Amino acid sequence: MAIIVIPFSASLHAPLASSPSLLRIAKLAAATCARCYSSGGTAVQLQQQQRRQQEERKQLRSPDLVALEYADLNLPHKLSEELGNVRVRQHVNPLSSSFSMPAQAPNWDEVLEDPTLPLMVDIGSGSGRFLMWLAKTNPSRNYLGLEIRQKLSKRAECWVKELALKNIHFLYANATVSFRHIISTYPGPLMLVSILCPDPHFKKKHHKRRVLQKPLVDSILDTLAPGGKVFIQSDVFEVAVDMRNLFDGRCDLLQHVDSIDPTIPCDVHGWLL
């Protein structure tokens, strides 16, 4: 098994179309979740971030980059009357009692055309556009988005139906309490798990609310197939390091991707370039 780690949202330097598949996923994910928080990281990293922001102002802003990448999805702006205007809270407390019940695993034969295909799970899938883009361009793999904000998961499912995609599904679920149960019922192999720019919960007393904690790490590694990968990314350096340290604690099962494939460009600290 391999762990792929990426700091910040600094993966937007090369054109997406010319990037290898793994790096292209990283760059698109960075564009999708770029929020440019002002906290976290060293002074040098913050200066680099400020310079990138100035360069982006001269060129395209992150939302514009995202819009261009997802333009071919042709997602409808108007949804059903049931959903209405989708406005959601940016910060959710996963420790709340309202999120303590495990989500029901779906009937895989009903939600996926071929539930034996290799599976990618995106924890905290947000709007779902990133995963839908992957599903549309890679029909030989299935995709599952787990999102704790119900309106977002419902809207994503509406978009999936609009696009008539048969290899992707979204679930309203708290991954911490539901991941192991849901994935244990999947007929095929779990080959990739991604956690992209999760809520940083900056205050120290709220760090326990961060989505990646040891129980979730254990659930991921217990269900990941041999040869599977974990792909983590944050636009806050402190959070990226925290997630990396949690997975590095299971070095008995995981290796950094650059130690397995030297062709993948990483810096001396193992961060994907």
Task: Note down, in words, how this protein is organized.
The structure is a single chain. The protein is an alpha/beta fold. It has helices at 21-33, 43-58, 62-69, 108-111, 129-137, 150-163, 175-184, 214-223, 237-248, 257-260, and strands at 2-6, 119-123, 142-147, 168-172, 190-196, 224-233, 255-256. A seven-stranded parallel β-sheet has the order 4-3-2-5-6-1-7, with helices on both faces. Helix 7 runs parallel beside helix 8 (214-223). The protein starts with a strand and ends in a 13-residue tail after the last helix. Residues 7-20 and 34-42 have low confidence and may be disordered.
Low-confidence stretches: 7-20, 34-42
Overall residue-averaged pLDDT value: 77
The portion of residues assigned to helices is 25-40%
Structural class by helix and strand composition: alpha/beta
Q: Beta-strand percentage?
A: 5-15%
Figure out the total of helices: 10
Distance between the termini: 20 Å
Order of helices and strands: EHHHHEHEHEHEHEHEH
Largest sheet: 7 strands, parallel
**What would you call the shape?**
globular
Radius of gyration, CA atoms, in whole angstroms: 18 Å
Count of individual beta strands: 7
Task: Give the spatial strand order of the biggest sheet.
Answer: 4-3-2-5-6-1-7
Short summary of the structure?
The chain is α/β, with parallel strands linked by helices and 273 residues long.
Give descriptors for this structure.
273 residues; alpha/beta; 37% helix; 15% strand
Topology record:
Layout: E1 2-6, H1 21-33, H2 43-58, H3 62-69, H4 108-111, E2 119-123, H5 129-137, E3 142-147, H6 150-163, E4 168-172, H7 175-184, E5 190-196, H8 214-223, E6 224-233, H9 237-248, E7 255-256, H10 257-260
Parallel strand pairs: 1-6, 1-7, 2-3, 2-5, 3-4, 5-6
Helix pairs in contact: 7-8
